[in-house]
Each structure stands twice: as C-alpha cells, then as structure tokens.
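Review form for a predicted model. The reviewer records the input and the model, then writes brief findings.
Reviewer: anonymous (R2)
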Amino acid sequence: MNQPQMPLILTDVQDRVMTIRLNRADKKNALTQGMYTALEQAVTDAANNPQVRVVLFAGSGGSFCAGNDLQDFVKLDHNTPREQNPVLRFMAALAALPKPVVAAVQGPAVGIGATLLFHCDLVYAGSSARFQFPFVNIGICAEFASTYLLPRMVGHVKAAELLLLGEPFTAAVAEACGIINSVMADEDVEAHAMSRALKLASQPPNALRVNKMLMKRWTQAEVTEAIPLEADHFIPMLRQPEAIEAMTAFIAKRKPDFSNFN
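Model under review:
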C-alpha cells in the first residue's frame, strides 16, 4: 500500500508564531503552482488567525527555495486572470500581510526564493546560503516587486549587477547589501530566527502592526502596482524565444545559446 505523501507546504502554530515550511527537499523546495496555492492559504490563515502574531518562513533538507519548478511552470495557463493566478495571489497576500514576517535561510534562495525575502521584516541566513536573481539568464524579467524594492534597498548600480548579470552571491554579500540581517552557522539559523520570532510575538501586537504599516506605508502603493506590472511582462516573456531556449537548455542540462537573438 502506498504511503500518503507529505504536504509540500507544512504549517505549525506554536507560541503565537506560525511556521510556514517548504517541504519539497528532493527538489530543493522549488515551487509548483499547487505550492503557491497552499502558501497563499497559509498566509491568509495567518492574517486572519488572532492566535498568530508572527510568521516564520523556513525550508527543509538544507535548502530554502530554489525558485520555480520550471517543468511545472511552463505548464502555467497564460490566460488565467490575475485574480485567479496562484502566483500573484500568494504575492498579494504576503505583500499585504500586516503581521511581522521572519525568514530562516539555508542553502539556495533563488528567484522567488530570494525575492520573497524582500517582503519579510527580519531575515537570517546560514553560511551555506546562496542567493541568486536568475531572471535575465532564463529570458524573463524579475518579479514580486523586486525591480522596485531591490534598487531601493541596495542602490541602482548594485541592483543592476545582481539582476542583470544574474550571478549567485553569498550570505556575506547579502548581509553587506542589507538584504539580510545577519549570517551564522547553518545549524543555528533556524533556532535564531525562531528566537527573534518569539521575541516579536511577545511584543504588543497592535504596536507591531502599526509600526510595520507605517514603515511600509510609503512604498505599499508602488509595491501593489509593481507586482501585476512585472507579471504583465513576465508571463508573455515565458512564451518568447529567449525563455524557450533558456528553459529547454535547462531541462536538457546544456548551456543556452543566445548568440542569434536581437
């Protein structure tokens, strides 16, 4: 008899902290459309549950998130309305979450595994963490309001280096850029992130929400505009020759060839 599969998104509430864990370790927690739907539901539940004061994102198997599962992603129905798109629904839910969000990062944080962190309030990384914004490499544009948030966080020239070259970078570089709070041993990062989440959960909850709201007040309109605007470019680019070549090469485990593209 086949054993029931474990859910790919696990949630647990302890001491007013909801842990949302990506649970697809064999694929380095690469996200499928079904996982986005579960993530959106988890974030919505956290927003509506009075017993949850803080959300903690974590990975499994020594990985945070290797981005989108490209084989699943190419099956995306490009005609799906925005309000039904599972990716955009998750992005909108997390961007609007009024409660503090903490992340514990180990191993790869690639694509949305990295841009998700811009919507967290505290981010702690293990020394194994490697970050990457590979969007240009695969013929598409960045997402999750990162084209707005990253230059604001690190300045234009550094953002251009990270986004346009799409090269991996270390946790030390991420800390120097202000993308994460601090770096520590891998075996310590999740416990440390939880200790910070528990500290937040012990703070006056309304004061937390109001302070977070005020800090985000000056950028919320731009973020809300940027997410669907990026998607309006991102989704059609998935069907264009550059992305098709990049994804075909990735699946075939060969280097893509853009030499004949204009």
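Findings: Residues 3 and 24 are 16 Å apart (CA to CA).
Further findings: The radius of gyration is 18 Å.
Recommendation: see findings above.
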